[in-house]
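#onboarding

Welcome to the new folks! Below is a worked example of what a typical request in this channel looks like: someone posts a single protein sequence, and someone else replies with the predicted structure as tokens. Don't worry about understanding the tokens yet, we'll cover that in week two.

Example request:
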Amino acid sequence: MGSFKQFRQEFIKYIRAIEWTNPFALTLTLKQRQFNKSLDVIQVSITLRHFLNRLNRAIFGNASKRYKRSIQFVPVIEYGPDTRYHVHAIIDYPLKLNETTLQSKLVSAWSNTDYEYNHIHLQPIHNDGWTDYITKFNTKPDYALSIDWENVRRQ
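Example response:
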């Protein structure tokens, strides 16, 4: 357990070292089955990649592909026997968008993924409480695999 605590502390340091401009706490909930296939961590990661591609395209247009423009994004996958798959993330959205526009783009991008579930929660981050929350040990059967490094986006 000691190594997990150390891993958690290093991950918290990693998050805090990122220069966030306008960070928001984001929670996305996923369907547990789709197309007669049960959801797993790999499919959650694929769904997140699809979501981020759509969201970045909506925010940055063609520059998202041409110049690899992306919002900053740090996702953590949670699940358990009594908990549906969901993602907690820190998302840094551009100041050029207001919160209503961001919410609209998030809903649109998420609703166009196969495993989307109707629950999206977004709120501004004012302190380190969200970082502590998303790095907790509960609802992470394999702590190291719960951090979706494939979908972490930094500037």
